[in-house]
């Protein structure tokens, strides 16, 4: 904080010097004008000039014009000379102040022009006077940040729109199959029991897939229109992970996957149970979907000094670094092939990341040598952020 304050002070040093020297110059100029005015008024030159002016323009042509002008000056002006000087002093002060303020407010005008430039679509840099270099850097940084966020928002919106189109298309496939098989079962009562059982099983699988796609639509709506809030309570994290692991055994069996679990016992944290359970569910489903068949998924949990670390690994196609950098973004899917069986809404990891950060934790993804790993860190007291 101290270093940042020192940098700000240094950045505005040039502006402070410019204002300081401008102020000195204006004070000197005002002092010089007043000294000249004082000498002019009280040295007799003002009297001579005034009498000559009156004699020429008001008493010209009269034999005693000089005496008349001199008397007028002595009785009407000389007796009030201090007031005339005070008026002249105020006038000089006002003029000098006006020039000074005009010189000073040009900086505000320059900053206003820079702020107006923030909302323009141009690509040129914002340029201010050299004394405002610190403000110029800040405005250009804000402009670049706004452009970057706009580009990210546009990209997320485009991904969402593309995803909705894909999901709408994918909805037709299981729905058409369900209608077809149910129509066949309805119109062919004499079907053999084996065929009937097979068609019912297929219809059930397609119905489950249809439910998943509809839930993805709901996820898109909820993620965009709601803010995730936490309902914290003391939770046995070890038991939660054990229960989550046991619930996935049937799903792992479908791809002939196995668990390798190493969970430290009796680890308690303060968390939102339902939302944290959703994090583990999203990450494990992602691991199952992108694991090679006949491979192993490992889950370990170990408490450390200030945090608990959870590592989920699976064997699958290596994710390139350029895709891994975007894996937690909304509507992003590393699998661009959009397989109907594995293609999700691209929200699972984004939602998991947001929930973990709300708990004061974090999640990182690594991929190398056909191994994908997600490393989760949660503070033991989830009311605080990790140090």
Give a description of the structure:
The chain is of the alpha+beta class and 387 residues long. The chain folds into 3 domains: 2-120, no CATH class; 145-225, Helix Hairpins, CATH 1.10.287.130; 233-379, Histidine kinase-like ATPase, C-terminal domain (Heat Shock Protein 90), CATH 3.30.565. It is 62% helix and 12% strand. The chain is built from 12 helices and 7 strands. It has helices spanning 2-11, 13-42, 45-57, 65-77, 81-118, 133-187, 193-225, 237-247, 249-254, 273-289, 321-324, 348-358; strands spanning 233-236, 258-263, 268-271, 296-303, 307-315, 362-368, 371-379. The strands form 2 sheets. A 5-stranded mixed β-sheet has the order 2-4-5-7-6. A two-stranded antiparallel sheet has the order 1-3. Helix 3 crosses helix 4. The protein is elongated and about 145 Å long.
